[in-house]
Amino acid sequence: MQFQWYPGHMTKARRQMQEDIKLIDLVIELVDARIPAGSRNPDIDELGKNKARLIIMNKSDLSDEAINREWTDYFKKQGFYVTGLDSRTKTGMKEVTNIVMESCREKIERDKKRGIVNRPIRAMVVGIPNVGKSTFINSYAGRACAKTGNRPGVTKGKQWIRLNKNLELLDTPGILWPKFEDQTVGLHLALIGSINDEILNIEELSLSLIEILTERYPGVLSERYQIEETEEAAALLKRIAESRKCVVKGGEPDYKRAASLLLDDFRGKKLGRISLERPKGD
Q1: Which residue from 30, 84, 118, 240 has the least number of CB within 10 angstroms?
Q2: In angstroms, what CA-CA distances link 166 with 29, 117, 120, 125, 162?
Q3: Residue 280 is assigned to a structural domain of this protein
Q4: Structurally, how many domains does the chain consist of?
Q5: Regarding predicted confidence, which is higher, 164 or 187?
Q6: Residue 19 placed within a domain
Q7: Which of 218, 195, 230 shows the shortest CA–CA distance to 271?
Q8: Has residue 152 got a pLDDT over 70?
Q9: d(CA 267, CA 175)
């Protein structure tokens, strides 16, 4: 499979971000904790240079706890502020506020020296599609400010959200880079749901997931589906279909249904906490 997905509105969004960045004190970048490097858009480093930077590893409840710690250390060494978060349950939200204020402390002090008081920090929230930006903003604000949806590309335009007298957020559409140079990155993005499932071969995708799981998390499939992990990926997908009664007329395995079930289980943490990436060198 070749992975590529760059709707037209994303080109417009990037141009808009180039304009808006001039108004910003802090760039809050959400990444998916299961693929922290692969879910970063390299454009954002260029767009956000000379700004305070905070990386939020969202959905950190879905990823491997030990590997989360490795990524936190890695990003801190790169000079970023960083924290983990589960936007849906608001776990880690209080820490975000503390880090936002800490990251902009120099800016606040400069303002005070110039006699500027109570000017709110302006933060741009960025990230790839379906990483949870709108859910984060709504949880942070304590009200429904941003449109959400469990599919990529829900946020189409920018919007300013005033959280309180100290902080304003700018929500932006999710943007992916036009071409994945490393197809492994594309595969990982597809697995976590950042590429529209409708344009993918779900069965091929599930086979790749099976290969990853049997290599890095042996026993996970056995425990979930009561199957032996002694066969190749295609045979294991058949076993999953049989275990979950995914059959078509004539009793043949329904591979597409089994593939969708496996992907849903992975994305919904029913296979446990799984990370697809580790920092380079680990």
Answers
A1: 118
A2: 19, 10, 4, 16, 9
A3: no
A4: 2
A5: 187
A6: yes
A7: 218
A8: no
A9: 21
